[in-house]
Amino acid sequence: MLETSELTVRFGGHVAVNAVSCAFAPGTLTAIVGPNGAGKTTYFNLISGQIKATAGSVSLDGQDISRLSAPLRTRAGLGRAFQLTNLFPQLSVVENVRLAVQARAGAGLDFFRIWSDRRDLLDRALHILETVSLLDKREARAASLPHGDQRKLEVAILMALDPKVYMFDEPTAGMSVDEVPVILNLIRRLKEDRSKIILLVEHKMDVVRELSDRIIVLHNGHLVADGEPETVIASPVVQQAYLGVNPEEEEAVA
């Protein structure tokens, strides 16, 4: 279980996230939606440790992780993918993944000895690359990959870390129409593991409808809706706050 309790952050006089309390259970993909400036990515940053909270707490499996740095939260089981890819650009595709495999195995980051001594780590890295359809590009530099393949590589690194919580911040941002289904299929595969928690910030409502088991809505830093996708999307507060639709005006026109 991942839980935030009264989680709040202020930037000067502006409250970007205001006392958000929410619990996330394994086996559930929760989409976090809201208009621009609602606090979605800030909420993500508070959970993963990129931003220090002004008040409130974050706990994982009953342990308060609020004071842990972002790297220590990753070790505790939070895996985060960003809007912009976060790779080792000059290393090869397979090196990016095997470093994550080594870190997960507690084998250190030695570039040569570990690689030769631990064939199992290499096999694990290659298996993950096959899963994300990057095995044929394993020797390519990460920087040379097209944007869609870089997003796939980032998912591969998260898989190598085997986190308790997968956090995707607009995973389809900047991708072509042809590339989007590949990422969505990877997320569907991750959903098959019912022991994992998946959080998704996404603007595209068709993606939200297709993938989510639950939607929470942030508006001006407040949690304003929480529930099953169809119910939340149809609610007046979401129609007005997120979609810019006033249900009363629609009824009057009808």
Short synopsis of the structure:
By secondary structure, this protein is α/β, with parallel strands linked by helices. The protein is built from 11 helices and 10 strands. It is globular.
What does this structure look like?
This protein is α/β, with parallel strands linked by helices and 254 residues long. The chain has helices at 40-48, 70-76, 93-105, 113-117, 119-131, 147-161, 180-191, 205-211, 229-234, 236-241, 247-253, and strands spanning 2-11, 14-24, 28-33, 55-60, 63-64, 78-81, 165-169, 197-201, 214-219, 222-227. It folds into two domains: 1-77 and 163-254, P-loop containing nucleotide triphosphate hydrolases (Rossmann fold, 3-Layer(aba) Sandwich); 85-162, no CATH class. The longest helix is centred in the middle third of the chain and has 15 residues, at 147-161. Residues 250-254 have low confidence and may be disordered.
Write the layout of secondary structure elements.
Blueprint: E1 2-11, E2 14-24, E3 28-33, H1 40-48, E4 55-60, E5 63-64, H2 70-76, E6 78-81, H3 93-105, H4 113-117, H5 119-131, H6 147-161, E7 165-169, H7 180-191, E8 197-201, H8 205-211, E9 214-219, E10 222-227, H9 229-234, H10 236-241, H11 247-253
Parallel strand pairs: 3-8, 3-9, 6-7, 7-8
Antiparallel strand pairs: 1-2, 1-4, 4-5, 9-10
Helix pairs in contact: 3-5, 3-6, 5-6, 6-7
